[in-house]
Structures are given as C-alpha cells and as structure tokens.
Design brief:
The protein is α/β, with parallel strands linked by helices. 29% of the residues lie in helices and 26% in strands. A six-stranded mixed β-sheet has the order 1-5-6-10-12-11, with no helix packed on it. A six-stranded mixed β-sheet has the order 4-3-2-13-14-15, with helices on one face. The protein has a three-stranded mixed β-sheet with strand order 7-9-8. A hairpin with a 2-residue loop joins strand 13 (244-250) and strand 14. It starts with a helix and ends with a strand.
Length: 278
C-alpha cells in the first residue's frame, strides 16, 4: 500500500510529465554514445535503485525503459514516481516506453489499482499519462526497442505505429515457428515467427530488436538467429539460478550485465556477455 505522500507526489508528477510525453512521437529516436536499456521493473523499487546506481558508475548518458513499471511488486507508485521524476529532470535523455501493464485493461486489476483504490481520479490520470508514452524507440538508427514485439503484418512500417492502437506492440511475443500463430496470452495476441521478424527488419533497415514482456529466469534470451533480444530486468523468481539483466549499448556493441538476489539485497555477477554489432 502506498503512502499518502507517494500518492500526492504522483499526482504532481503526472500533471507535469503529461505535456512532455504528449510531445513525443510514437517512435522516439535516441542517439547517444552510451545507453542503458532496462525493462519490467514491476514495482520493485529496490531493484530500480540497484540498477540506477550501477548506471551512474558506468557513466550512462541515456536511459531507455521498455515498459511494465507497475504491478507484481510492492512499490508500483514509488517506482512510477522515480521514473517520472527522472523524465522531468532530463526529458531528452530518459525514455519511458509503454508496456502492457500501462493500459486500462490491466492497470485496473492488480497491485497498482489496489494502491490507488481510494484514488479513482489519480488512477484515471495515471492511465491518461500512460496513453501518451511512446510505443517504441530506435536507437542509433538501427536497433528497435519495444515492450512486446512487432505486429506481424505484411507491409509493416515503423511509420505506421501509433499511440492510438498499440496493443500488438505491447502484447505480442517472438516465436520459434514461422508465421503468425495465436498466443496463449489471449485473443488478438500472436507469436511472431522468425520469417516475419526478418522481413520487418529488412523493410525498416534494422539490425536488432530488444524487447521485454516475457518473464524468465535467464535475464536474457535470444530469438531469430540472435536478432531479437528478450530482456528481463527484475527477478521473477527467488530460485538460486534466477537472474535479471540490463543491456548497455555503446558504439558497436551491446553488453549484458546480470545480477542475482542475495541475503542482503542484490549482487552483480562477474559474467558479462557481449554482442558485437555491424
């Protein structure tokens, strides 16, 4: 349950950040020397703090978050406040993409809604802000970031992506079988085959897709001949092998940094994986 102070803070942040987000296109295009990509914070304020301290030490210039800031964890409102205030302080260096939990259909059912159970106007105002968030980001002109996946249509262009109808980009997943296959997530949601992903990337002159959305215990999963990176930046489980990850894009390489839960909090692993770009 969030405190009154956090709720008051959220109300103020929402009023200030909405005009900033409204000005942003559905697809934003950050281009910096060193960028951090993280996703699915899901109300885990301690994990967010841990990631931000790491980023500060690494000299990160810009931050791209791939949605799902709320629900599942205990601190949805605090996480949202922190990220909105980061956006307010550095609007051209902080990018908050929309996730499927930042929709009216989902936000009214879980922890965020419970936190704001006595604040219906604040919940409505939050959803109005979510609707202004960008749907995707293109980093350094050829890396596409999105919460879910592509739509999988025949002639799909980045120019056609709109804030008004983002469902497929927030919900779809990359698949291992070619074609457009129904998803177990529900009606109107699909598993996108490698053939359709490669076609989309060729049509839009892209080299890589980075997405979140899918909870897994590896931190990073690769699809489509290593051209789709599925990232998860908080810990969905507490097992000894569960780990989370963030990505750092610097020049022609992406490095993946992994962390695990310890008795006293979190700890970064020594292992760092690198993906070289063309």
């Amino acid at each position: 349950m969030s405190s009154k102070t956090e709720k008051d803070r959220l109300g103020k942040n929402i009023k200030r950040v909405k005009p900033l987000l409204k000005k942003e296109e559905a697809i934003v295009r950050p281009s910096f020397k060193k960028m951090l990509i993280a996703t699915d914070i899901h109300g885990d304020y301690r994990a967010l703090e841990f990631i931000l301290k790491f980023a500060e030490k690494k000299g990160i210039e810009a931050y791209i978050f791939l949605g799902d800031y709320i629900d599942k964890g205990p601190d949805s409102v605090a996480v949202l406040n922190e990220l909105l205030e980061m956006k307010l302080r550095n609007p051209k260096k902080i990018f908050l993409l929309r996730g499927n939990h930042e929709t009216r259909d989902i936000s009214r059912w879980f922890e965020f809604s419970d936190d704001l159970a006595d604040e219906t106007e604040l919940l409505e105002a939050s959803n109005a802000v979510f609707e202004q968030m960008p749907i995707g980001a293109v980093l350094n002109e050829n890396i596409f970031c999105v919460h879910g996946c592509i739509a999988g249509t025949k002639h799909e262009s980045l120019k056609d992506i709109s804030k008004k109808d983002p469902k497929k980009y927030l919900w779809n997943d990359p698949g291992t079988e070619d074609g457009l296959l129904p998803s177990g997530r529900g009606g109107g949601i699909y598993s996108i085959g490698p053939d359709l992903i490669k076609k989309f990337m060729k049509q839009n002159d892209l080299q890589l897709i980075i997405r979140g959305h899918t909870s897994h215990q590896e931190g990073v999963k690769l699809f489509c001949d290593d051209r789709v990176i599925s990232l998860y930046s908080t810990l969905p489980g507490t097992g000894p092998r569960a780990r989370a990850a963030v990505a750092v894009l610097e020049e022609k390489k992406i490095k993946f940094y992994y962390y695990r839960k310890t008795k006293n909090g979190f700890e970064w692993e020594d292992e760092v994986k690198q993906l070289d770009l063309k």
